[in-house]
Amino acid sequence: MNQFYSDPERVMKKSNFRRQVTKGVSLLLLGAAMSFSYAQNVRGNTDPNAPAKISYDVQINAAASKIYGSTFPAAISKKAVALSGTYTVGIGGDYATLSAAVADFNSAAITGPVTFNLTDATYPSETFPIKIEENAGSSATNTLTIKPAAGVDAMISGNAAILFQINAADYVTFDGSNNGSTSQNLTLNSTAATGTTSIVWVSSTSSAGADYVTFKNLKFLGNTPSTTVGHILVSGPTLGSPGTIPNNFLTIENNIFNRGQNAIFAVGFATNQDDGAVIKNNTIGSTTLAEGFAFRGLAVQNAKNVLITGNKIDGVTISSSGTSSGMLIGAAVNNITVTANKINEVSNTSTVGWGSNGIWLNAGTGSADILLANNFVTNVHSYGYASGGTETDNGNGIVIGGVATGVKIYHNSVALTANQNVGGRPSALNILSSVTAGTLDIRNNILVNNQTQTGARYAIYCGATNAVFSNINYNDYFTTGTSLGFLGSARTDLAAWQAATGKDANSLNIAPVFVSTTDLHMTSANASLDNKGTVLVEVTKDIDGTMRSTTKPDMGAHEFKASLNGTYTVGSTGDFASLTNSGGAFEYLNTTGALGNVTFNIIEDLTGETGINPINAITGGYSLTIKPSGAARAISGTMASNALIRTVGASNITIDGSLSGGTDRSLSITNLSTTGPQVVRFGSVGTTPMTNNTLKNTIITNGLNTSTAVVIHDDALATTAGYFNNITIQNNEIKKAYMGIYTASAVGAGNGGITIKENNMTASGADAVTLAGIYVQGTDGAVIQNNTISNITSTGAYARRGIWLATGTVNSTVSGNTISNITSGSSAGSAAVGIFISSTNNGVVLNTNNIIDNNSISNISCAGTTVTAGIQIFGAVATPTSGISLTRNKITNIKNTNSGGYAAIGIYLNGYSTAANGGVNIINNMIADVANYGFNGTSYLDNGVGITFNGASTGYKIYNNSINMNTNQTVATGMTAAINVTSSITAAGAIDLRNNIFVNSQTTTANRYAIYSSAPATVFSNIDYNDYYSTGANLGYLGSARATLAAWQTATGKDANSLNILPVFVSPTDLHLTTTGNEALDNKGTPLAEVTIDIDGDVRNATTPDMGADEFTSTLAVSDNAKVAINVYPNPVVDFVNINNSSRIDSVEVYSVSGQKMVAKTVNANSGQIDMSKMPTGMYIISVKAGENVHQVKVIKK
């Protein structure tokens, strides 16, 4: 019966019409010869050799008239159909089995890349071996890929001798990843227990090789280590034997191999070598014996241009005759590179004493150009054979044999740790006697034998002569045995080995410190091995891909960073090229730590610092010192919104700019950024305090004077208070900053100890500090000493301060500082203060127990609508048990020039002391030349005042101060006073005022007082033994103006021992008392327990001390004038004073103690008279000129 069919299941190509041919169906020819396509379906088998649903082109000759049955007549021939694209393999797929898919591939015309996607988890119906044959259509484009489908974990398992054979087929890839990554989702498993078995055999034929074959991302699993001969065998037509045609460009990558004799065995033909193989990143074996290998990890023979890299080989163990190898490179090999492999636990337990090795180079005739570099070899051992020194006798890390030339053994790390059972001659590197002269270049290796069994154990063993070494040097040899090496005979130590080789001059004998016995990365505790290698152009990276030093690489496979210990140079030719840059000294230190104290010597200007690497905490308590070397040096760079040099939780850091070890400033540090720059920051981390950090003898220059130069606080960029102790900032010149030094510590007992001393902040103009020289906040125990601060000038409307003790600063001392030229030119709400002490007013965070002592403050001026002060105390500053002491300070030239009449005050006490006894002590201070523009007002904020008390305070002790209001204000309408007690002082007994000298010697101010009190007399717990003097109409004010001392005494109800005497000062601003002319004040004070010395440190008289800040001894008496011819009398004087001389008197002048000339008279006679009747009572100086002589006499006017 004749039937014509459509083709519902498959589109047939290259046919005139479509047919579906089934068993028992006949086809009548309709004429001459024709062709058609058919597809076998499940209803029958037209061709019993064809798998289901495989397309064919069928050519029917004209001689045939009919087709019957299930076989092809002779007149019919099959033609392969074209394949291209992706086909599924598995139940319900395009192919039920991979065998069927491969069979079709073998006969198909390949017109594009073909992929067989495995969709099943297992394939139990395969027919092995699955043999992929050469296909003429294969190319770099027309490839075959076998891989698991997306999301599928597949296994192909069988017990045949061969599971897969790649028989001269090209461009075949087995890819085990189901997602296009490096995942391993396909397992090839051989369960065959006997016979010569291989999971994959890549074979050549007599006419073609298998080229561009790739195995990647697969798991290879044999039956047992002893039964599966090889997982991947590459050879000729006979399994395991070389053919005459090479298999080229094999790639074996990222696979896992377990259970077998050889994971990879590739053997080519000696005179036509396999070319271009790449074996990389595979994991071979296991430390679990049953999962390892019983002969070799991999073997490559008769090959060229081979790369073997990144492989990890574990657990190659044999217990019978033969030599086990992690890796064998043998026969005729050329241009072989073996790098970055890790080989561990290779052993031979045969009690007869057979050998084992990590890498065996056994090159034959014609071999050349072999590089073994950056490999780890560990724990190679055999049972042991005492009499043997070859590869077949004992465990050796690397064995070099054969006759290759150009063998380079570079940067390998070998460590034998596992013991042999009996003694022998194990060695980290074994050179066989077969090696020919001049062939070996062995450099930069670490060769260690740490075995402890009895017998010889070597770092290096050479059975050949020393002629084999073309170069051998820069190696580290170490052994626990009695002899370091063997060359002709045992060589006990490095010197003996060097003598034997005639080379190795730079090699070492040092025990390296590895991470472990199986991980030969170097720990940071290898300072003695750091940078001890030599540059080799062939090895630019280490085993991990880290770039090697281009000047001083490390020995061994690992380019490590040793913990620092000692002195290192920083500069283009130094140990480090930079401090803060990538690869610089700080980054290195942070990475490796230290094993001892470290010094970085700056050997040249570092002009390109980026600041990206700080100094982190150094474990072990070791110190770091940064200093110049050879000459003055500069560190500069640009770091925006951060410090150029900074520490992060680090302690024991010293930046010392001195070359001499003294006080020369020979190191400059400059941040050139104009975006929020800082120069140096010591930063703490969390609540762990940093300690013992020092910045000294440097020149610090910031990039902007609206940003702070030196900062000490938490490492956070915001001004977060930190935790620190024993920080020193000493003898630095600081320029171009908003604040020169800023320090903020978290308020807490004992936190924040810092010493800031001998620093200079005096630059002017563009390099000036613009807000504050030194700012200290929250510190317990600051010492701010002997700093020089000046030229803080600006026209901006904000407060400028020389030194600022901010909230929570306690138990601190500010002493010996010189502060001058703090100026604000703004007429807005700006201020200028020499020393400013501020705190919150809530009584919780206080400034207590602080001492402001022996500071010189001058030329503080402001044009703003606020107070200018030499020293200002603001906020809660004392408790019932502690307070603040202002002692021995010299304050002069305090001015406010605002025409609105805003205050200038020497010491401005605007605090909130709560101490009933000893809250704020003002002792031994000198204040002079304080004035403002002048304002007709009675407020203390309107005019110039020496000391002002303001605020609801108590506990003031004002002892032995000297104040001279000597400078007239610009306008006369005003009210000035040496001391002003405002009405805000209300507590009874708040002020104890004794032993002071208060002078107002101004001459133009309308109301000028020695003392002014808007508070009632009850605020004085004690007021006595003071000297009040004013050139004005009234001595003082208390409730009302008090013209005389008596009136003042009446107002206070006290002051019985006080005086109204004009003292004689050395000058209007130097308030030391002269030794002559002050006898009326001599010894007129009362002893005070708090005052034992004066402003100069002179000891006070214990029973009759002087008033004022200066303890003096008067030498003035009328009889003192007898030793000269001039007589001045009477003295004291009421109205007229007479001057006689034995010779002519030219002229007579009379001066007040403030330096004002009162009288000038020409005499030109032997005697004269001066009218002093209208002069105020007090002390005066009469200057008599007679010829070339000038005589001065002090007189008292009553």
TrEMBL record:
<feature type="domain" description="Secretion system C-terminal sorting">
    <location>
        <begin position="1128"/>
        <end position="1196"/>
    </location>
</feature>
<protein>
    <submittedName>
        <fullName>Uncharacterized protein</fullName>
    </submittedName>
</protein>
<keyword id="KW-0732">Signal</keyword>
<dbReference type="Pfam" id="PF18962">
    <property type="entry name" value="Por_Secre_tail"/>
</dbReference>
<feature type="domain" description="Right handed beta helix">
    <location>
        <begin position="694"/>
        <end position="870"/>
    </location>
</feature>
<dbReference type="InterPro" id="IPR039448">
    <property type="entry name" value="Beta_helix"/>
</dbReference>
<dbReference type="InterPro" id="IPR012334">
    <property type="entry name" value="Pectin_lyas_fold"/>
</dbReference>
<dbReference type="InterPro" id="IPR026444">
    <property type="entry name" value="Secre_tail"/>
</dbReference>
<feature type="signal peptide">
    <location>
        <begin position="1"/>
        <end position="39"/>
    </location>
</feature>
<dbReference type="InterPro" id="IPR006626">
    <property type="entry name" value="PbH1"/>
</dbReference>
<dbReference type="Pfam" id="PF13229">
    <property type="entry name" value="Beta_helix"/>
</dbReference>
<dbReference type="InterPro" id="IPR011050">
    <property type="entry name" value="Pectin_lyase_fold/virulence"/>
</dbReference>
